[in-house]
Amino acid sequence: GLILLFYLVFYGFLAALFTFTMWVMLQTLSSDIPKYRDRISSPGLMISPKPDTALEFYFNKSDPQSYAEYVSTLRKFLEAYDDSKQSQNINCTPGRIFDQNDVAVKKACRFNLSELGQCSGKEDKTFGYSKGAPCVLVKVNRIIGLKPEGEPRIQCTSKEEGTVEMSYFPADGFIDLMYFPYYGKNLHAHYLQPLVAVQLAINSNSTKEEIAIECKILGSPNLKNEDDRDKFLGRIAFKVQMTE
Amino acid sequence: IQDDHKLSASELEEKYGTSIDKGLSSARAAEILARDGPNALSPPKATPEIVKFLKQLVGGFSILLWIGAVFSWISFGIQFAQGAESPFDNLYLGVVLALVVILTGVFAYYQEAKSTNIMASFSKMIPQQALVIRDAEKKELPADQLVVGDIVEIKGGDRIPADIRLIFTQGCKVDNSSLTGESEPQSRSCEFTHDNPLETKNIAFYSTTCVEGTATGIVINTGDRTIIGRIASLASGVGNEKTPIAIEIEHFVYLVAGVAITVGVVFFIISISLRYKILDSIIFLIGIIVANVPEGLLATVTVSLSLTAKRMAKKNCLVKNLEAVETLGSTSIICSDKTGTLTQNRMTVAHLWFDNQIYSADTSEDQTTQPFDQSSSTWTELSKIVTLCNRAEFRPGQENLPIMKRVVVGDASETALLKFAEVILGDVMNIRARNKKVAEIPFNSTNKFQLSIHETDDPNDKRFLLVMKGAPERILERCSTIMINGKEEALDSEKAEAFQTAYMELGGMGERVLGFCHLYLPESEFPDSYPFDTDSTNFPTSNLCFVGLLSMIDPPRSTVPDAVSKCRSAGIKVIMVTGDHPITAKAIAKSVGIISATSETVEDIAKRLNVPVEQVNRREATAAVVNGMELKDMSLEQLDEILCNHSEIVFARTSPQQKLIIVEGCQRQGAVVAVTGDGVNDSPALKKADIGIAMGIAGSDAAKNAADMVLLDDNFASIVTGVEEGRLIFDNLKKTIAYTLTKNIAELCPFLIYIIASIPMPIGTITILFIDLGTDIIPSVALAYEKAESDIMNRRPRNKRKDRLVNEQLAVYSYLQIGIIQSVGAFITYFTVYAEQGFLPSTLLGVRVNWESNAINDFEDSYGQQWTKYQRLYLQWTGYTAFFVSITIQQVADLIIRKTRRNSIFQQGLFRNKVIWVGIFSQIGIALILSYGLGHVTALNFTPLRFQYWFVAVPFAILIWVYDEVRKLLIRRHPGSWWDKNMYY
């Protein structure tokens, strides 16, 4: 009996101590910006849609069922970019870092879906999958305070030359600097990260082949894309295989 | 047993196909040698080295770790087959675990081999030679070439090379002490004197020594078939008992393995029911096993034991079997030899009687003066007799040695007298030269005296001096006067009575008494040129003047009484087992305190009350002197009763075989028994004892082989220092284990919470190994250097059934209290690291699957930032490092609190044990190197940690220290309370 009571008190005390220490620790943190960001100095790249398995796309262009999930993922992803959702967003000056350090309420820059051209899903509801030219959206991971230098752009290459032709939206895969820096979930609630759509027009004689594609971020000296260990730092590799 | 002793010489010649004059032919000898094998004792069967090594590989926790390794490889196999991305992690983990087992195995094997090697040097014997007649020629042959039927010649000083039936002897005496324990030399002759071959005079036994005279005999037994060989093989038949510490460690291993397996299985089931994949569950299981098993602990225990063994070797206790170090500490009965162990093994003058008064002499080992009153002129005369009537001489060339250490040619009594005289008078040889000897009658057993006639060194005194010494009653018979205060007085009945009283008193002290008398021969009758003739004794040998008595004893070593009283306060019963006479044994037992001054034997009480022995209540007597003859007729129950009822026991006149019976009797009482021994036939008792202690100087090889420990100086006091060390190491091992077990909880909790709350892994399996085999090793060894908290020689020996090395309190306090505090401290650091990088604790719960997914490279933190897999992994390693550092920091506090179990650290002294600080600095140093030096080596999963994270756990370290001080304070304040019972380990 006494033993149980002792441990009740002992663990009660420890639990209280734990809670208190955690509370103190959390009090020292800002709710806007993490104390350290040194572990994510350079952003990773990611694509949408992201197949469940690995980063491998398998579809039959004549079978809508086979790419329905990709299409719906894209549609869902782009919902946030719909004009109706961007009413609060302002039009920023292109080509310049949009510095809002001194402003209390941070504005988000508008990203027009029309910039994604054929991959915007407006004209082609299947994002090119039905035509054998699937769209993949490439996005740069959000990192608070990141200001890319130079003129960052996304460029994709296929290992097997001549199997696929790529077209970029916006043109040449440029990422506009006005979308940077990001101020964090709390301060920058409506922030939309810039997207680059890559349309992969697969050659008719390359169907059934597995095409390996690697996209990289180029043109910015402070965005790394060749880390030995991190295969997703400033780059991303995926595979596409289309049947008819 | 053969009847060779009953046969005549010619019958023997026939039986063995030999000839007494010519011996065997070489060819025949070679034949027999081929048939019987060499004449040597076959050494005890050694365990093959490979078996010893394999035993190390499967002993202790090794099995658990092997299981962990196999599981790792299985999961590697499955992952590899499934084509997962990084299956090699598990392969490496398996390899690391296997390496851990193999390395600790190699280490333990090496340690054991090292201590065995010390012993191996002992068993190297100088090849013995024997003088043999073969092919009608005398030849020197190595003794192991002897065969049955060989004719050998022996002379004084030789070791008997085999069992020999004597056919010719001349004044031959043998020392059978290694066989029977009797220290008096026994004469040997060719006559058949006893039916029992062990008692008959015409057989000399292998390994005994010929003290004087010469003999020729026929070899009748060789090698293992000799009497000694049979006893030695008897010893190897006596099983080796498990040492107490081995039992304790086994108990501890079971306990920890039990916890590991229980927790492992429970969480395996939990993780399955939480719908984890089987493969994941297996990986969890490996983690739990690794966290639970203190990988470095058994190696640490070995190191601690060998450190103590080293320390004991410095104090002249050489430990053969490492575990015996602790056995000595739990000893509750010591059965000790007398001669050489309790005593100096050297006859020394202990008392003098002259002028109607008994004087005591100094009997210590390094005497340089004698303090008794030497002013009486009786002493002057007595000293003259002692000096002159003595044939013993110092070996030349020892002038620089202390007198007591010089080697003397002569028998024990004469040696004692010579040294006694040399100490008091100085340069005895010179005095003898100045008092030239003109005639001498050496001692013989019929007249029992020794006589010599000298010129005096006084140039004015032309008289001759006749000096005589011998058995006191014989000397007195020849005297008519007695010297009192330098004057000759008539020896009347009153003075004779005084002599008798003194003689009885000295004899009652177990001392060998000699009488001394002299006579100045009148110059008129014995002029300068008088031809003294010892055959016709043309000089007076009666009506002499009695001068005094000297009594001698083999005195106790000066350190022994203190050591015995230490044993007494330490609750250890010291039993003397000797082949000597009961009176001598009792006298020595009294003088060293084995029988205390106030206690009485049954016989003493009977004498005091003047009633027959049978009427005395045996319970009243605390002491007992048991004669070997009585022991022979005793039933086991009677022996048990004696061992039980008397606290002070002396066994006298015992044969070494009876020693075994005594040891077994003590063990029946539940005692841990230490036994000393030197003879070959002590080996069964040494083997049977919980700890056999062989004598390094006097001990035979067989005794050393059977023993667990060798006393280099043959000194009983060394055993007591050994006991002290043994007790200390037991306490310190407790501390080491408590220290080591504590952090197991801090290593285990991360896995449990990881499984239940699905947070990112707080600490890696490899990281755990770095704690167990890295930072924690030196500190846990350092605890072996801790001084005792209180006088450990003032408490009773531990009860091997109740006082466990690892008891419930130790496990509970380490696991459920300090361990939990450590875990809390480490988790605070973990959460701090993640929160300051953007992952608040609330975001971490339940993220495991996505966190570990290789496909998710935009994992969102609490601030909306997105992380790639590798960025998360690196953060996870930072978490490992932080968790590791926190455990290390709190282990520093754990190390400090483990210095004592009851006393405050400030009573013990924070800086007294310097090695602890070496441990603390090594701990922190290793952690710094791992984090900052090796933080970039991916495979090790360490990262350079922000400096402030080293201090997050410091408040918890302080809490541990403060809490433990409070615990100890309450234990000291309220002994016997609920707190004391539950919190003292």
UniProtKB/TrEMBL annotation, chain A:
It comes from the Eukaryota. It is a single-pass type II membrane protein. The keyword Iron-sulfur does not apply. The chain crosses the membrane at residues 6-26. InterPro entries: Na/K_ATPase_sub_beta, Na/K_ATPase_sub_beta_sf. This is Sodium/potassium-transporting ATPase subunit beta. Keywords: Cell membrane, Disulfide bond, Glycoprotein, Ion transport, Membrane, Potassium, Potassium transport, Signal-anchor, Sodium, Sodium transport, Sodium/potassium transport, Transmembrane, Transmembrane helix, Transport. The lineage of its organism: Eukaryota, Metazoa, Chordata, Craniata, Vertebrata.
From TrEMBL, chain B:
PROSITE patterns: ATPASE_E1_E2. The chain crosses the membrane at residues 57-78, 90-110, 252-276, 282-305, 737-757, 763-785, 810-833, 877-896, 916-935, 947-963. GO terms for cellular component: plasma membrane. Residues 3-77 form the Cation-transporting P-type ATPase N-terminal domain. GO terms for biological process: intracellular potassium ion homeostasis; intracellular sodium ion homeostasis; potassium ion import across plasma membrane; proton transmembrane transport; sodium ion export across plasma membrane. SUPFAM superfamilies: Calcium ATPase, transduction domain A, Calcium ATPase, transmembrane domain M, HAD-like, Metal cation-transporting ATPase, ATP-binding domain N. It is a multi-pass membrane protein. One of its GO terms (molecular function) is P-type sodium:potassium-exchanging transporter activity. It is found in: Cell membrane; Membrane. Keywords: ATP-binding, Hydrogen ion transport, Ion transport, Magnesium, Membrane, Metal-binding, Nucleotide-binding, Phosphoprotein, Potassium, Potassium transport, Translocase, Transmembrane, Transmembrane helix, Transport. Its main location: membrane. CDD domains: P-type_ATPase_Na-K_like. Belongs to the cation transport ATPase (P-type) (TC 3.A.3) family. Type IIC subfamily. PANTHER family: POTASSIUM-TRANSPORTING ATPASE ALPHA CHAIN 2, SODIUM/POTASSIUM-TRANSPORTING ATPASE SUBUNIT ALPHA. This is Sodium/potassium-transporting ATPase subunit alpha. It comes from Cuculus canorus. The lineage of its organism: Eukaryota, Metazoa, Chordata, Craniata, Vertebrata.
